[in-house]
Records
---
Amino acid sequence: MKKEKRERRAGGEPALRRPGSKVRGAAAAKAVEATVEETVPAAVEERVTATVEEERAGGGMGERVKGRVGEEGDGGDVGDERPGTRRVRVRVRVKKRGLHSWRKVIGKVAAVLAVGGVLGWGLWRGGVAWGVFRGVKARELAEEAMASRQGADEEKAKVLMDEAMVVDGDDVVVLRAAVDLYGERRDNAVMPALKKLLLSEESGEEDLERAARVALDWGRMELAPVSALQEWSESGAGGMTEGRMVVVARWMLMRGEREEAERRLRRAVEAGSERGEAELGLCEVLLSGGGEGVDEGLERLERLIGDGESELRVRQRGAELAARVMGVEGVREKVDEERLAGFRAAFAPLVARLDPEDVVECQLWLHAMELAAEPESRQVVFGRVMEEFLSVAEVKQLRIARWFLELGAWERVLGIYEGNPRWVEAEEWEALRLEALLESGDFEGAKAVMGRMTAGVSALKREVFRYRIAAGLGGGDELRVGRMKLLRAAVEGDPEEVREAAEYAEGRGDRELAIGLYKVLEKDPEEEVLAKLEVAELQAGAVGGRAGAMVVLESLLSGWPRLEEVRNRLIRMRILEGRSGADDVAAAVEMAAGARGYAPFQVTAALARLVSGQSKEALELLEGNGGRNRREAEAVNPVVSAAVLAAGGREEDAKRVREAMGGRELTAGEKALLERWMPGEG
């Protein structure tokens, strides 16, 4: 035994302790680790780890340390297994770090990358597939919407187009269809769609044409692509589509070039394959000028409305045009009983083709035309309308009652309401009754109705009624409180109701309230553009409001930089208020050069030249286009026109323009401009 111990010690291996001696697992492991280090080949880079397990056996005595040599050895028991002694077994793992080990690591990494690549490729392909599917689905919905529009099913067309925009509102094909549909419906949803379309990299000239059509239909030339319109008008009709010829002709008509507009439309009618849009445009031009063209315009319009070959929607627009122009001086005198009979006959096949939802509206156009042509037959026409009223659904009865109110026949509305007890406390009818009382001037009666009203009229409408009642009763503190409550209710109100309230306040001359309500609408994507334009216009007309107007226009341009008319207006304000820079002057001159016949741009460029010390060039801009620029410029901004004329040595003309302004309220910038060039006139 002693010899065995000596051999162990000689080999560097510690002797085992007798029972009762204190041997800790860590120490034993360290000793065995030293032994194992000598048995592993020195050529192999190694790492030795040892774990020691202690477990008590029998009476709590006994500790076992397990050891195993990984890859280089099996390990084994170390120690004496004599009874009563502590047995120590050490498990040793040796890990080599060599080329073989790194191959394993690289293999694992490669496997992970391969799996990630497969998954990533699958996700990418899935995204592409979903994008393709979404685009196809959205286009299918848009196509169905346009087909419904052709069939005069306006409500279905609207629902389908809304769904298409939800599925993929960034697809350029869908956006084009949306602009066409929403624009014709006068639906404010056209604004965000048009904005997206014009900002798209795929937009082209046909999209500028769409923007021009929206601007003309809505009467908002701030949206018009002026440079493109001017270029088309100067290039002649060669190579133009029928639709573009109509747009250009309408643009010319708006600017007073009636003869040229008529000539182009006649050419479009002759060249057009369907003779729908161009024919309607020609009717509008002929009826707008009075004189000899009216008879031809009425004949063409009657024929278009009854023409079963023309598009249904064009015929509907023709019927609406007939109702709108029939009361115009120069047209009304040309309409006799025979002409009215002809229009009635033309309306009959149109009504037969229409969706039931649109029949009543078309019939009301015909009745409006009859009233305009024969004002003395008012009660007779109203009697016919009441007969139709009793035969239609309740929702259409409400529309007819509102038509009476639009014509100022509030007594008819009150009579209808009082004769139908089932409508008492019905939301729409209660609101209509209130409107009729307000229109009649019975503000006390309206106040009493408001006190008893329990129907579900919206909070905003309720505050609008209270505001109108307070205004009708003389204002005071009640009106001031009403204005505050109305603004608070507008924050959560329906955008359409907010817009109606803003238009009412603007019409009443309550500029502050109107601006506040339009500012609420700025937060709605569909209302934002028009609301900002209204705010800028109202603020620009107020003393000291130009700074606020410029902020609004700058905000609008930051999201829609292609609004040329808005940019032109902003530059003119900056120059007048002394806040312009070299970039503004250069931009004004560039825009005027791109639209040589467009007076608003010429006025701003002339002003830019004038403040730059180039009075001769300013006068040339104003006198250009055969003198027509000057005449139009006086209407656009007489202050700038007077200053430019005075600076160019045309004092008499400048005085004439200044006198024509009368007592017009001038801004600080306009006063300074007149004082600079016409001392004593500012």
---
Amino acid sequence: MTAVPANRPMLSGDRVYRIHWVLGTDRLRAVCHCSAEREFEDPVELWDWLLDHPCERSR
């Protein structure tokens, strides 16, 4: 039996976006670094929203 690897620390910062599959559906939940969340069926729309929605970003 092989050893289970340790969990890696979660990334954080103003360039970290998270995408979660909503269990039992065909939907995806997008989470921006600014904590805004939204669900999508289309991954292209999801990425458009993540990269273009208004939030206070430090660039």
---
Amino acid sequence: MEGKGRRRGKGRKTKIQEEEEAERPLRLIRAQFPSPSGWEEPRPFRGGAGMAAVRRGAAALVARLRAALSPRISFPYRVELKEGKKYAWCSCGHSRAQPFCDGSHRTLAPDKAPVRFTAEADGKVWLCACKRTRGPPRCDGSHLRLWEAGSGARR
């Protein structure tokens, strides 16, 4: 009597037969999806050039939506400038280092660029925060016009 492949008694299978039967579906799957490990692992989506275009389009859309929102009333920043030092004033309004640029415009407002300037003299100046000044980066009181347009209510 051979132990492998033979049934004992009333239709009962041996332990080896049960293991072989349990292994059969896995062998079929492995044959359909060959890989070094025996299984086909899912690969992460890498995107490529098409995904970069989607990201740029999404960033531009976000910038347009933010610009379409009602203007936010912001009061100017009083900052001390050093003579001869170069500064970059944020023109998009997304910088966390207001009123200076921290590079946020690259992703949030790609159509905007910082205004670069060199301080002419030491001293304190008012730099625009509402971003609607006619003479950037200095404040010209444009935020007051926004205040009047909004009936004195802050937005």
---
Amino acid sequence: EMSLWLWQYHNSVTSSISRKTAESSDVKTVSSGQTWPSAKDCPSCQLTGGSWDHLQVYQYLRDAYWGDEDAASSAETAYRMSDIHVLDAKSTLVLVGIIVLILASIRMWSRRYLLKHNIGYLPLS
């Protein structure tokens, strides 16, 4: 799931920045409250031993960012987005067709021009 990957990446960057800040300011300890969500915001997200309950984290992300109303409309949004991709595919086919017609017209025009002015290929022998 992309949202969990982004959440993990966010926490790893936050931890990395905190470590570098602590090293540069000669602070020997790094606060353990750097990860998100905090135990206060989501008590069920962290298991004992510091590991994460990914299902609970995902639910917290859904509640925090999508909410119930938005989650219900996500299927509709996905459906509308699939229509956009279909339109993009149709537009691409039309564009390719126009390019093929232009190239065919140029070839026909150049062939007529060469024949009209008696310009042709030189014989090999």
